[in-house]
Write a structure and sequence with these properties.
This protein is mainly alpha-helical. It is about 80% helix and about 0% strand. The radius of gyration is 15 Å and the shape is globular.
């Protein structure tokens, strides 16, 4: 996960998250947080999707909720794929709080509308 070859890093993240359980999650937390904001979209996307799958399997909701800053950074990425995966992960973190979901969607729609009006001019 810390190598220089980006193709291997994305695959390593996916594989590690597949075999990780809730007790090992704290050991790899730092690496996942770094991968969420990686400059390579394949690595960042792999970390986002793997974290999403970890949340479905092991329910590490408290730990992933602490990663909202990194997920927000991924939402501001230039890559559409990374934004899409970050949007899905952010929704899965906030899906049990209706007010948080509505505020999140409202803020996201404001940003999208701002981009659309900027490009329309």
């Amino acid at each position: 996960m810390t190598g220089k070859e980006d193709g291997y890093r994305a695959t390593a993240i996916r594989s590690l998250c597949k075999i990780t359980d809730i007790t090992m999650l704290t050991a790899i937390e730092r690496y996942l947080k770094q991968a969420l904001v990686d400059r390579n979209p394949a690595v960042s996307s792999a970390a986002l999707v793997s974290t999403l799958h970890l949340g479905k399997d092991n329910n590490p909701a408290e730990m992933v909720k602490r990663w909202t800053n990194e997920i927000n950074e991924a939402l501001n990425s230039d890559n559409v794929m990374v934004q899409y995966h970050a949007l899905g992960l952010m929704y899965s973190v906030k899906k049990h709080d209706r007010l948080a979901v509505s505020n999140f969607l409202l803020n996201t729609l404001k940003v999208v509308y701002g981009h659309l009006t900027l490009h329309a001019c």
